[in-house]
Each structure stands twice: as structure tokens, then as C-alpha cells.
Amino acid sequence: MITGEAVSAARLEEILRDVGDQRYHINHPFHKMMTAGTLTKGQMQAWALNRYCYQAAIPKKDAIILSRAENSEFRIEWRERIIDHDGTDDKIGGIRRWIALAAGLGLDEAMVMSEAKALPATRFAVNQYLTLVSQSSFLVAVASSLTELFSPKVISERVPAMLAKYDYITEDTLAYFKPRLHQAPRDAEVALAYVQRHADTAEKQQACVNALITKCDILWAMLDALQFAYVEPGGNIAPGAFVPEVD
Hints:
Elements: H1 9-23, H2 29-36, H3 41-68, H4 72-86, H5 94-104, H6 109-114, H7 120-135, H8 138-143, H9 151-165, H10 177-198, H11 202-231
């Protein structure tokens, strides 16, 4: 807890990074199973399908933040996020890359894009994120994106493990992740600098820490839902949600 006087910018960053160390979903059992090579193909498909809901919401989230920004320099930096995910006429964006990932795992693209077979808990968690950035203070909305501080670490674990331990996964399948290794640090740097500059009271700093905790909780809850439905105890797939073929 940050009480009394505001802490230094460096100390605030330390506190935020501590949140990631403790709460980021790199510590979740589902992620650990993925990197250990113990997920079935059906479980991997369920992950890709449900994660798509989050991927598709990212440019919506960033558009909400853009619409609330008063500073043109901030908007110029932040809008790169939307381009990264939506792409342009001559650039494939992250959403298309994620659809290709899902297709590479054997899923129908149209089914994935409809989001109709995602778990209810997934859709609820994603909607909570959009609610967070639209209804909280602008500073809190920006701070909620700071999970990108920890994204390169999870990618550096996930990609080599998936290539090594799942023979049906190729580098082309995982093409989504390569650009994120430089996009995420760039984006995190912008957001962190904004938070450090504008969180100038203990109350604002704690609100930013709480925002990051909430975002980590949202990502964790999405994996909780996958774990419960598809792994342990398993067999708790909601009506209408994706049912893997027997491996």
C-alpha cells in the first residue's frame, strides 16, 4: 500500500513490477502446463479460441483511451497500438496473426472470430477490462495496460516451449508473438512514463497499482476458466462453448 506521501517514480516502478512478479499469469498452472508440453491439442485450441476474445478487444480498449486523451502527442504515440493490432492495407496486424494461430491449431476461422464458442467467463472478463478503461479515471485506464511490462518474459517462455514440445506447432503458427517482443516494451515504456509523470499523489499511485492488480486478475481469471472447464476437474464446459475433439 502507498500511504502518506507519494513515493518516487523509481519506487513506483518497483512496486508495479512487484505486482507483475506476483500476479501475472506467467505463474498460472495453465501456462505452466503449456510450457511443460502437457496440454492436449484440444486444450491448446480452447486457449487460442478464448484468448482471441481478449486479442480482439485490445484495439477497442486502445480506442477508448484515445477518445479520452486530451494531448495530441499522447494520441500520436498511443494510436500505434491500434495499428499494431488492426493492421493496415499493407501490414498484417496482430488480430489477423492470432486468427492464423488459431487456424494453425485446426480451428475454423469464422468460428473463432464469432467468439460464440468462448467460455462465458472469458467474455465476462474481457468486458470487465473494457469497463475498467471506460469508467475509471484516464490515469487508471492507462495504468491498466502496464501488464505489457511483463509480456516479453511470458513470450520468451511460451514460444520456445511450444515449438519444442508440440509437433503440430510451427514458427508460422506463432508468428503473432515475434512483433510483440518489440511492440510491448515500446508500449509499456510510454504507459509507464505517463503513470510516473501524472501519478503525483499517494492516492493516484495506489490507484495505478490497483489498476494493474485488476488487469492481472482479469488475465488470471481467463486461465482459471480454461483450467476449470478443460483441465481440472474438466468436463465443466458451459452450454454452447467449444468442445474439443477427443485427442
